[in-house]
Design a protein that fits this description.
- This protein is of the alpha/beta class and about 200 residues long.
- It has 8 helices and 6 strands.
- α7 runs antiparallel to α8.
- The longest helix has 23 residues.
- The chain is globular and about 50 Å long.
- It starts with a helix and ends with a helix.
């Protein structure tokens, strides 16, 4: 009998990267089993954008090795559906790298309580326009025209979030393994940000 993970076309490079846009209807039930394995303690980053993106490739390369769950979407409808069906999970960061109806997308994503922060990747000629347009949205932690700057901001935010999780878990004797895991992740993310 073949393991379930081997039969799914959506798992790439690591069990912690889910590419939702490649699901076919016949694999939907199997893929739901993988998605259901995401725990409330996982640090989750969700990305929306083109498949050919250099930022996307960087996220795939760096985040899973840091014990961060990365979920990739190429269409906003898939993103909305996933957010609606997984509202109990906290999305540490939503990264948006698309200009298609960006204002509507930000308005809608800003209403999800499960999203902790939003980072936007845009072209340099759009940077000032988007900064003015979205300055009133408290969940937007940065708008960048450069992959490296966005990546550094993401890694620092994830390190702080991991440390915050560990601090909340520190009082619970049963969660000491998770406490150390989160502190270690925070330290590793800071080291990675320093190397970029």
């Amino acid at each position: 009998m073949m393991p379930l993970v081997d039969t799914l076309p959506i798992v790439h490079l690591s069990k912690d990267i889910l590419q939702i846009d490649r699901l076919s209807p016949r694999n939907e039930q199997q893929s739901q089993l993988i998605i259901d394995n995401i725990s409330l303690e996982d640090v989750i980053v969700v990305w929306l954008g083109r498949n050919e993106s250099s930022l996307r490739r960087s996220l795939i390369e760096y985040l899973p090795s840091q014990n961060v769950t990365l979920i990739l979407f190429s269409r906003k409808e898939q993103l909305y559906s996933w957010l609606n069906s997984n509202s109990s999970l906290t999305v540490a960061c939503l990264i948006i790298e698309t200009n298609e109806n960006l204002e509507d997308l930000i308005c809608r994503c800003n209403t999800y309580s499960s999203i902790r922060s939003i980072l936007i990747r845009c072209f340099s000629n759009e940077l000032n326009y988007f900064r003015r347009l979205f300055r009133s949205y408290v969940k937007i932690n940065g708008i960048f025209a450069d992959d490296t700057r966005l990546s550094i901001k993401l890694l620092i935010d994830l390190a702080l979030f991991s440390e915050e999780i560990a601090d909340h878990q520190a009082d619970n004797e049963n969660k000491q393994i998770y406490v150390q895991k989160n502190y270690d992740r925070a330290l590793n993310l800071c080291a990675l940000a320093k190397r970029l």
